[in-house]
Amino acid sequence: MRLDLKEIQSHVNNKGIYQKGIEIYKNGLIKNITVQYNKHTNCSLLIGEISETKRTKYTAIATFDEEKQKFIRFHCDCVVLTKNNEICPHMAAALIAAYYKEHPEETLEEPKPDQLVSDAEQLIRFYSNDYEKSLMLQDQHIDVTIIPQLEQIDKHVYVFFKLQHNKKQYIVRSLEDFVHALQERKSISYGKELSFIHHTEAFTNPELLLFLLREFENRKINETYAEKNINAKHMYLNPSAFDEFFWRFVKDKINYKSQGKEEPLHVHSILPHISLVIEEKEDNFVLRLRKPMQYISGSMYGYYICGNNIYYCSALFHDACKRLLTYFNTHSELVVEKEKMQDFYNSVLVEVQGYIQFLGDVEEYSPNTVTNRLYIDFSNNIVHGFLMHYYGENAKYLAFKDDNQGTGRDVREETKARLALKKYITSIDPLKGSFMIKKSMDDIYDFLSNGISEMANMCEIYASDKVCKINILKRVNFSVGVKIESNLLKLDFTGDVVDSKELQGILEAYKEKRKYYKLKDGSILQLANESMEAISSVVDSLHLKDEEWEGGTLSVPAYRSLTLDSTLKNYRNIDLDRDVYYKQLVKSMNNVGDNDYPIPASMKKILRNYQKEGYRWLKTMATFGFGGILADDMGIGKTIQIIALLEDAASDPTKKSLVVCPASLILNWESEIKKFSSNIKMNIIMGNQEERIRLIKADTDAQVYITSYDYLKRDYEHYEDRTFEYLIIDEAQFIKNQYTKNAESVKMIKSKYKFALTGTPIENSISELWSIFDFLMPGYLFDYNYFKKFYENPIIKYDDTEALEDLRRMVEPFVLRRVKKDVLKELPDKIESTILVDFDEESKKLYDANLSLIRKDLETQFVGDKIKNKILVIAMLTKLRQLCCAPQLLYENYTGQAAKLQACMEIVQNCKETGKKVLIFSQFTSLLDIIADQLLQENISFYMLTGESSKNKRQEMVNAFNQDDTQVFLISLKAGGTGLNLTSAEVVIHFDPWWNLSAQNQATDRAHRYGQNKKVQVFKLIVRNSIEEKILNLQGKKKELSDALINENEGIITKMSREDILDLFM
């Protein structure tokens, strides 16, 4: 192979690719260049190994035709697809390196500008050529069928192809030209009557065409092909490819060419009749097949060609006969020495005798009948013994002894017995021929329980008295007594042949995956059975501590009753004895709607049916001493259901309840209770600390106390002498972090019953759910370390669906969640629209400049997969979000346009003209000021609610907006996303998105809620190709977490990984 630089450049014709190839070469990234010549094909393979990085390595292979003196094929691991036989940068680098290795005296020559074309010019050329070919194809109307045929050459079988058109056939003489024509849509002439542009649509069987193309591509880098290819028209198929070819493309017959003669082979799916002639000649036996044949070995199946027939041979036939038949492909006979005939019969002929008929007298060499005898004894916790092979009473052999010679033995039967026993034994003494089993008691009992039964199918068993006395119990039947006493769930286990006091030890052995357990009476219990699985699952579902065991009795909190019931439903083989109270509890919890709890008279006409069901659910929970989460969708009346519960308790003046809510909702709770109940007297705990303490200590007839999280964390010590009937926490996500004062203070308050209200119990992580349940029923989700180990980490880090389903099953009974579409059929539609706007030129420059600076800083913020400074990363995100909203948030002197502000004002103006009121939410109060200035300029009336608005002022603005003609309400998402009833608005605008989708939905539900009688239009303003679009995509991921645990939907718990964060800034 002699390389020419112009020849190399002719295959590139692209400035970018060739220049990149030069850079790879100059940077020393070519690790090795080799050239291999193949005499069969008269081609040389140039192989280059390129390492761009430590992890990124490529192999580039170029095929050089020595006769034509040009490159004919290129291949690279980078799988960059090129047209017209052009190449990738790695291939270019390899060719350049090979050239200068061959010409070390020359200096590196950069291509002249006029030698190579630009990327754009190359694309123009490609598309022009493609268009010209497509026009030519429009005028071509032809149907060609490609027909595969087999040919035997030098004892090997190859495939070649013919084309059929108008009942005439034409041989494809060059597969390379044929494939190249297909890839480039070129024309080939096969004679006067057939010349056409090769394209898949021109063929009637394109699936065979695709198979041919794939195999041809594979063979380009397959050295086996290079060795076996005979000429340009033949293709060798490897075993797996032949299996696929035969099954997909060969039906009733296929043409076969052998020794110059071509005729069809008829396909048969039955096994062939094969005769093996065995003749004795002097000191040898000569074996030959009665009929000449050719055997083709597939990967799984065999193909037997004899006469005009080809037989498909099953996998079993193929495994047994392929070596012998493949031998006869290249040999006419097989010579076996007489002294080797016994071994040959035992090893080879015994294997094939079920498929091949023997013609000849060789029965004397068939093995004698063997009797296997197994002798076993048991002492010092060791099983030991011998395996003997008997041929009559005089000839016997120890299976495991080294000196073990003999003729006429049945090697197959001996081997079968020996291998079966070897699965159990742990050591062999080859001098004595004995064996022992002593690794573990499980191994010993496994042999005694299962091994002896297995060996009995092939051996006579001789066991000592010690072995026979060992009693192995295959199973044990348990009965379980279930009752509830003193708010404890008690389980009594009784076994038919097992002392219940041994149950804890038995279960520990089962969990350790031991197979057997030795009982106190010496019996051996086999642990792998349905009863043990059932009892273990029941006990596991209760997550027991050691102190909760007492002999065969378990005592756990009553709130485990539903988990137990759910588990027991899966196991019908446990005999259950349940007491009346347990049955009543399970029935009531599973059929809340049937429970007869009278609705307070004053609420009967107010509550809707689903709210009455919610009230019954709350009463059911309280009746059995449980807490719960009322997680109804936002806007369908969680508050009024709690008011009904408090109204019921108010009938007894000694029952006092406490409602804890965000500070902004104190007056809302007071207003809602006054609206729906005339009986409940309230004590609003607010004001300065002295005033609050006075109100807490006051001897008042108020039945409901209302305070905020902020007040409670400063006042909780003053509630020490009070035990409330109900403790209600609203917006329960305020205690999502177990380490905050909010969480600690509400957990210090004493009450009989506890309920949590939230639209979405989980917002950012699964630990939030634990904190809420730690308030409701401490210990139900275990201590946090246990919960984190067995639930939070497996679910979040490893997507453990079993742990997720187990947690969902535990949580489900204590969470009531209904969504609007299911219960508020008459609630008007909520129409959500995302409006994408584009940066103007000036703001785009600012955004891109900031993004570029942030990207440089971001990589320094990671240690492995963890962020060093989360606050700094959030600040980076906030900066980009502010630029999307209005550049003047960051740059006071910015005078350009703000695309989102323009879009927002257009919506507001349209609403003004149609008389629709608008709510505008934003994270940034400074942005609300900018919007307010714009509203003033356009003479549009508005209210604005931020965190600085007092509670009284907040309620005044809400009432006024619902009654007067004010057109817009500007609301800070944090200050006004919850607790507001603004059903007079018909349009909601989310000016800027943030991670917390539930917070956005809560904000929307200020308008789309119980009491709304008009359609609500929701607009999300998003800047295209910005951080905002990325946030919008990530919002959907966290929604799946809530759905997975609270709804019946399946979900995948996802967290933002390093890749997620980096992707935001890409």
Helix content: 25-40%
Number of helices: 36
Morphology:
flat
Low-confidence sequence ranges = 221-230, 1046-1055
Helix-strand makeup class? alpha/beta
Tally of DSSP β-strands = 47
**DSSP strand content:** 15-25%
Radius of gyration: 42 Å
By CATH, the topology of the largest domain is Rossmann fold
Quick check: average pLDDT?
83
Query: How many domains in all?
Result: 7
Largest sheet, in brief, is:
8 strands, mixed
Distance between the termini: 47 Å
CATH architecture of the largest domain: 3-Layer(aba) Sandwich
Identify the strand order in the major beta sheet: 7-6-5-10-11-16-15-14
Descriptive notes:
A hairpin with a 2-residue loop joins β5 (145-153) and β6. α18 crosses α19 (638-649), α25 crosses α26 (801-811) and α28 packs antiparallel against α29. The chain has seven domains: 5-123, no CATH class; 140-263, no CATH class; 269-365, no CATH class; 371-468, no CATH class; 472-589, no CATH class; 591-823, Rossmann fold (3-Layer(aba) Sandwich), CATH 3.40.50; 830-1064, P-loop containing nucleotide triphosphate hydrolases (Rossmann fold), CATH 3.40.50. The strands form ten sheets. An eight-stranded mixed beta sheet has the order 7-6-5-10-11-16-15-14. A seven-stranded parallel beta sheet has the order 35-36-34-37-38-33-39. Strands 19, 20, 21, 22, 23 and 24 form a six-stranded mixed beta sheet that branches. It is flat, with a radius of gyration of 42 Å. Residues 221-230 and 1046-1055 have low confidence and may be disordered. It is an alpha/beta fold. It contains 36 helices and 47 strands.
